[in-house]
Amino acid sequence: MAAPSPDEIRRFQEAFQALKNEMLRIIIGYDSVVEDVLVCFFAGGNLLLESTPGLGKTLIVKTLAEVLDLPFKRIQFTPDLMPSDILGTTIVLETDRGEKVFEFQRGPVFTQILLADEINRATPKTQSALLEAMQERMVSVGGQTYPLDLPYFVLATQNPLDAEGTYSLPEAQIDRFFFKLALRYPDLDHLQRIGEASSGRREVQLRKLLGAREALELQDLVRRVDAGPEANAFAIRIILKTHPASPEGGPNARRFLRYGSSPRGVQALILGGKVRALVAGKAHVEPRHIAAVARQILNHRLILNFEGESEQMRPETLVDEAVGELMGSSPG
Q1: Looking at domain 226-332, which CATH architecture does it have?
Q2: Does the reported pTM lie above 0.85?
Q3: How far is C-alpha 70 from the geometric centre of its chain's CA atoms?
Q4: What is the strand order of the sheet 153-158 is part of?
């Protein structure tokens, strides 16, 4: 594949910045979160967003769907939600001639921007119904396979695990999320701006800046960014430094972690670095581009052991340590 041309890079930068600026007309106080959501989307990943209720998780994904001009659906996860409520079900219909036929009624997973709200309130059986859609971009029901329209993006939200009525996501599903982000509580200035914006009579009309075709073209452009041996080696070394079983694992990783990242972590670091490279106007990935996405990619892939949990060690602290050590020795 040919590397992106200067004109293509400029086009990506302009589209990315325009989307970010348009979303920030509605979303107040979460500039870096909006940027990370866009990085995740253009990398072709799915996103897990954690916060307490009421901080604007739903608004973020609805705004993304609007500026991208893509279909949007929302699933509210509850303990009694069943897989068929998400995927759809086959029902028996009677034709005008009195014949009985089977017809598949599609569930809300058939969209292009999906908000899986409070995903950890549902049982593991229902949570796992999203796995195939997230990973393969298809749904299998009753022996039939149904492809999903592209681009396809799942933004799942979860309440903190100590909240009442939550079920921990299985590790296999957590690994399918490209990024995990946390929304912080707004400060005084942002609370004032939110209050002014939400209590006024003027409604902001967002522009539809992209469609499905152009979004897919920009996602394809990301894949064409060059990631040379230096970038690949940097990504691999981050994984090894945060892996307790690796000889390169740091002392804190060996002490506090039960598991490190799967190989998907390496793939995600490279892809996230490619998006960051394009945003920076580069046609090739440098270590600093990978470092910029390491925390978002790995903080949910590092599983703490008992000591790590009891010491309240934060996985992102271990990621930051590894990146800091490697950046100190990297020319990039």
Answers
A1: Orthogonal Bundle (1.10)
A2: yes
A3: 17
A4: 72-76, 113-117, 153-158, 47-50, 179-182
| Bridge pairing between strands 179-182 and 47-50 | parallel
Q: What is the pLDDT along the chain (332 residues), one digit of tens a residue?
A: 788 889 999 999 999 999 999 999 888 778 889 999 999 999 999 999 887 666 577 888 889 999 999 999 999 888 888 888 888 887 777 777 777 777 778 889 999 999 988 888 887 778 778 888 888 898 888 778 889 999 999 998 887 655 555 667 777 778 889 999 887 765 545 444 544 454 444 567 888 988 999 999 999 999 999 998 999 999 999 999 998 888 888 888 888 888 888 888 999 999 999 999 999 999 999 999 999 999 999 998 988 889 888 888 898 899 999 899 888 755 44
Amino acid at site 259: Y
Lookup: tokens for 276: 């960051």
Q: In 10 A of CB 282, how many CB atoms?
A: 18
How many Cα atoms sit within 13 Å of 122 on the Cβ side? Answer: 24
CATH superfamily of 1-80+109-200+208-224: P-loop containing nucleotide triphosphate hydrolases (3.40.50.300)
> What does the domain layout of the chain look like in residue ranges?
1-80+109-200+208-224, 226-332
